[in-house]
Design brief:
mainly beta; about 120 residues; 4-stranded antiparallel beta sheet
Length: about 120
């Protein structure tokens, strides 16, 4: 069983930046690592994905060019650098792990709140 713990959330003004971290209690090297977010009253939505080696990433259109996902397998940690934040980025951000070829996610974190004020 792997536990994922997110950190780095907080309150920031529009245009500001935050860096989220997702620390795993076990090795993450063989997994895709994703970030999701869920705003109040809305469904959870995909934000970003990174492959096991870190050389392939993908992003939701809404964050492309503003957010950057990265990972450090030696620290079993994934990061989400968020720049040029907008009020519509306000949500609970969660990370998730998925094995190659799996149809669902193996582990989820509890999430960290990000609030962007206008």
């Amino acid at each position: 069983q792997v536990q994922l713990v997110e950190s780095g959330g907080g309150v920031v003004q529009a245009g500001g930046s935050l860096r989220l971290s997702c620390a795993a209690s076990g090795r993450i090297g063989a997994y895709f690592m994703d970030w999701f977010r869920q705003a109040p009253g809305k469904e959870r939505e995909f934000v970003a994905r990174i492959n096991w080696s870190g050389d392939s990433t993908s992003y939701a259109d809404s964050v492309k060019g503003r957010f950057t996902i990265s990972r450090d397998n030696t620290k079993n940690t994934v990061y989400l650098q968020m720049n040029s934040l907008k009020p519509e980025d306000t949500a609970v951000y969660s990370c998730a792990m998925q094995r190659l070829g799996a149809s669902s996610y193996d582990y989820w974190g509890q999430g960290t709140q990000v609030t962007v004020s206008s």
